[in-house]
């Protein structure tokens, strides 16, 4: 295809401007966080300091918050992943009564907002004695990840040729044996992408931690800690808050840099797969 | 996310399976399937379905969360509907739909239209960078933008520097600018999502369609409306569902930037749900509002999908082909 040179240049300029706008807010707090005593704010930085990070780290106890986030997100990934593999396998390869009804009920979970269930969830977990524990985040977030997970795995398992399963059955493999020996080994890329998605959604969730674990600093996740820190530190240095935000953003950004292809393809496939 | 798609696949599969097989056999039922689905439905039932049902139940009671609850019928709903503050909050949600869904979609479509006509160097890089806002935690995003909008922040410095100093203000602390300022954060977040989805869709549009359009003498604009836009119908529908849902349940950004203020100028329904349930202890009223919000979101999703339902021949032949394949299998 022949292209006009001007069109080429305009296209790239637009992309570069877009990329700068996408990065700018993050870059601006990065710069702010490195500015010594930014109380005036407007003064240009003459030297670079990491003191704000030290202050944020010690005052906000972000080490414990990051560990909490990691524990919760990993537990949800493992739990929701295992449960989704089993459910998706059944929906993809087995015939049974009520299949479409069950699938329909699961679809609801893709669009229902957490606001519609958070209030009873709070009292339910309180009744179970789980409020302000890791379980208060892990168990509900496994539940909210299941709709996506089951359909994700179902779609993948349906793309596996039925002859593979038949061959395995003829060789005497059980249903479960076929899942473990035939389906799962070829499903690892799909499971990997699903895990990345669930990890990110769980890590970034805000409403659930705010409602369910806000009373226990030991269990607070990183976004929640940052929210409390930024809210209570309004009177102090904005540079310290900026440093705290960078601390909370960095782990996810690092994961994203390594897995961005998987992540983007996951969003595209998860959203658009017909 | 993929609700329509699965529904349509389900339909295809059932039709294809039954009509194509010449001998009607009773399918062998695998009752072991229930065993595989028990874990999923245990979690889903206990921590999603049950609370949803209970939300509806609680919404008919006057309850402070501690003392005995009293059945009040539809009173909570009447109170919600007669509360002007709720209507104001809903109006804000509509404004957020413009900023969270309409604006980023249009911007992303323009980007894709420009880029789909040229060979882009470093597309993977640009795509990854433009998607970062969607990946970051909303709390981080809120902190960053609060600084940008700060009275001493970069935005005001910039306006000062270019001689527009009279415009400077505390953007999210000002009654007139708070709502659009918070909305623009949503545009910034959602743009990347739209861009990534539309790019993926544009790459699937058959190249000969573009060639045909060009042979017919279509310029860039005609080409966009005749080929690109119709080809992206599915992606647009998905993007709008995700964006409108995010706009209607916007809580994180509002909570972490303005907390609904100044005054009530940036309040949203989900903010009142949280406040009613966990601060002012009107649990029944908050539940009624939560139920209404859920219904509004489900209706918005349904309407979006209905309006943008795929009707193109391309899609139909694809479905037919799949139906045939599954029928013969």
UniProtKB/TrEMBL annotation, chain A:
Membrane topology, as annotated, equals: Multi-pass membrane protein
Keyword terms: Cell membrane, Membrane, Transmembrane, Transmembrane helix, Transport
Q: Which domain of life is it from?
A: Bacteria
GO biological process terms held by the UniProt record: transmembrane transport
Subcellular localization, per the record?
Cell membrane
Protein name according to UniProt: Raffinose/stachyose/melibiose transport system permease protein
- Per the record, the major location class is membrane
Family that this chain belongs to: Belongs to the binding-protein-dependent transport system permease family.
Parts of the chain that traverse the membrane: 12-34, 65-88, 100-122, 134-153, 182-203, 239-259
Q: Residue limits of the ABC transmembrane type-1 domain? A: 66-259
What are its GO cellular component terms? plasma membrane
Q: Does the keyword rRNA processing apply?
A: no
From TrEMBL, chain B:
Matching entries from InterPro entries are given as:
ABC_transporter_permease, MetI-like, MetI-like_sf
Membrane-spanning residues:
33-53, 94-116, 128-148, 182-203, 224-248, 288-308
The record's GO CC annotations read: plasma membrane
ABC transmembrane type-1 domain ranges (all copies): 90-304
* Alphabetically ordered keywords of this record: Cell membrane, Membrane, Transmembrane, Transmembrane helix, Transport
Compartments, as annotated in UniProt: Cell membrane
Q: What is this protein called?
A: Raffinose/stachyose/melibiose transport system permease protein
Q: Which organism is it from?
A: Lysinibacter cavernae
Upper classification of the source organism reads:
Bacteria, Bacillati, Actinomycetota, Actinomycetes, Micrococcales
